[in-house]
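Usage example:
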Amino acid sequence: MYISRRAEFSASHVCRSVELSAEENLSLYGPGANANGHGHNYVVEVTLSGTPDPTTGMIYDLKDLKDIMHSEVVDPMDHRHLNFEVPPFDKVVPTTENLTLEIWRRLEPHFKQGPARLHCVRLYETEDTYVDYYGK
Amino acid sequence: MVRVTRNYQFSASHRLYLAHLSEEENQKLFGKCANPHGHGHNYTLAVTVEGPIDPRTGLAVNPFALDKLVHGHVLGRIDHSYLNEDVEELRGVPATTENLASFARQALAAAWPADFPALAHIGVRETKRNVIELPVIPQKV
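Running the assembly step on the lines above writes:
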């Protein structure tokens, strides 16, 4: 059985790689490569898998999930410039793909043991664009 | 591997009916969707691709190339159209959301570039209450 929780954070970024030419940056990232950056209201959806505890009826305490999502993702990223303030995006291009991977890396250690496993991280950059990552 | 999904809006009209059935039978099967002059929706097409992140670009797919493909081979053919008549593949079959999703899958698969990540899933939302999910490749987890 799966259980999901969502949280929102707002951040700015610029998608531009120093390894690519100006033309390549423009063709891959479009206005996302504009030098001064831009921002989004990101929505992250975290899905855990597990079996409801027979006593509590819960797969995982959603308040604990909320606290982990906030301490690992929302608090360090909300109202920040990802490239300047959130490693590893000083070196890695903060595409939605890479940001989804980074969120998985931050959350996964919390679910190695205990009642639930991390199943999926979905990250919406806009309402119409999102990335899913299942850990492999 | 990641799955990247992009949503696209389009507007179209249709009428659900089968020519060999009576007016009464069509009403029974399709309800108000069989009303004789058709009706329209604002649809959302969700296209999902699956592939590895290119370490050089941080992207699994070039979103602009994907947009161009979807606009060129699907949206350009159905946006602001009467699906029953204007879309050759939907002539003679009911223009249901199910058949519309199949049309989108076939049209995209036929034009899919060899260097693109895999087409993984098609979704078509007709209204807030109706959505058709059409997996193209099984989810690996």
